[in-house]
Amino acid sequence: MESIQQDNETINLKKIIIYYFRHWRCFVVAGIISLIPALLYLILVPRTYEMMTKILLLEDKGTSSSGLNIGDASGLMKTFGLGGISGGSFNMDDEMAKLMSTTTLQDVVLKLGLNVAYYKPNAYKYKMYEDTPLLLSADSLTQKNLESPITFNVDIDKTGKVKVVAKNEDGKKHFEFNSLPAEIKMEEGSFLLSFREDEIKPLSLKLEISPAIWVAQDLSESLLFDEFAKNANVVEISCTDYEKKRGLDLLRTLVDVYNSQEDSIKKAEGGKSVRFLDERLNAVVADLTDIEVNIERYKLKNKMTDIEYDVQFYADQMKELQMKIIELEAQTRLVDLLDAYVKDPQNKYNLVPILLASGEGENSSKSVSSYNEALLERLRLMQSTKGDNPLIGQMNKQVDQLRESVFLSIDNAKKSLNLTLDDLKGKEKIIMDKMGVVPTLEREYVDFRRQQEIYQALYLILLQKREDFMLSIGESKDRARIVEAAYVKKKSIAPRKLYALIGMIIFTMVVPVAFLFGKEQFVALKKEYKETK
């Protein structure tokens, strides 16, 4: 039975094949007809190319102080750990998110004017770039208020008169002008229509302006970002376009906008640090001025002339001890400044200068560094996300916890400095008690001089750090360095002859088979209908 069934299936298959071979003319006709859509595809679809560029994302290390001895102002800066403008670690995923963000792409769109489409006459949705005869522009306020696309159908007759039909969600509006340039005023704002170069008469052209954020969203889907290697900071960026110049300009402008944004952030953060240092410098100068005035009054009141010579003998003996006290006093002043800065509610989410000395323990400076890194991570998260993100809430909790540890580190540092300072002052008192013959006036003058030197040392520290920040802000350094300049690949990616050939084969095979099968079924149904009738 099984062999008989197999023979029947073989006979039926042969009948089907012979049946279709008898109607070979249908396949020939279908093959000829399939040439039409294939040729239309090859002719009408614009030749599209792939553009590519490679960039190296660099870590901004910011300014750093040279490691000198503790007795020098620069050495104190290094000891206190005043870091650079950028103290966060480099994260490749964060930089990729910034490159791909709609905010960055929106700036690219507005800079190149890609939100204005100039449709080529007698072509299907072909958007021109450089060879457009007209230009449509809008100010920043109009671009911001634009919430839906507006289509402009422009007709210019031989006499130069211009007719414009503007169409949006609310309907159509008609405008007439004697010549170009002309200003088109609508509810969304004002649009300026002008010739790109020479006047062209007559002319008919369709233009469409869309919200820049919409175009940026489309670009984020069409642009391809790929890491060159797992452990490398090189990124490959590619796009496809039938206008080569538009694709190249897109890649170049994307890199330029990214560098510009990073430079702006760097300068903004550096400006905050400079303002912080300026405030502290002004306060130190005011205190130093008060001390110098007090010294002058003290000398006049007690009729002192050459007190330096009088106390030189004792000053030489106490020089080493006083230098240590001055250094500790300067550290205490810096910690007090940091304490006031951190406890200010306005600075809750601002970066904290790492003013705690490394000599007070590694945990002291590490807590401030961890807090700064958390703040930078929070800033990156807020820049790369939109809306209410639960990750931001978690990050805020983490920042608050780290802030408490910063408070504790500052308190511990103050206690440690005070204990050390009390010990040194106790030793100083022992020496001063031995100076039974030293007049009270001289001892009071030494105290004035010590305060003056403390503020002078603190002033040098803050002034040098301010100069470092100013140099870093003024230094222009691209965050994204071009490894391979944007270029067009040799072979086009569309239209593809292989796709046209596959389409012809499918059309030639499927259409005749479907036609013959349908015809056969129709004849059978018709015959069955007649027999039943």
Overview of this protein structure:
- The protein is an alpha+beta fold.
- It has three domains: 2-45 and 496-532, no CATH class; 70-88 and 262-476, no CATH class; 116-210, no CATH class.
- The protein contains 14 helices and 13 strands.
- The protein has helices at residues 2-22, 24-44, 73-80, 92-100, 102-112, 140-145, 212-222, 244-302, 307-310, 312-343, 362-384, 390-434, 440-474, 497-532; strands at 49-57, 116-119, 127-128, 134-138, 150-156, 162-168, 171-177, 182-186, 189-195, 203-209, 224-227, 234-241, 480-488.
- The strands form three sheets. Strands 3-2-10-5-6-7 form a six-stranded antiparallel sheet, with no helix packed on it. The chain has a four-stranded antiparallel sheet with strand order 11-12-1-13. Strands 4-9-8 form a three-stranded antiparallel sheet.
- Helix 2 (24-44) packs antiparallel against helix 14 and helix 5 packs across helix 8 (244-302).
- The protein is elongated and about 140 Å long.
- The protein starts with a helix and ends with a helix.
- The model is unreliable at 63-88 and 357-361 (pLDDT under 50).
Intertermini distance: 37 Å
Instruction: Strand order, main sheet: write it out.
Output: 3-2-10-5-6-7
Strand composition percent? 15-25%
Tell me, what's the shape?
Answer: elongated
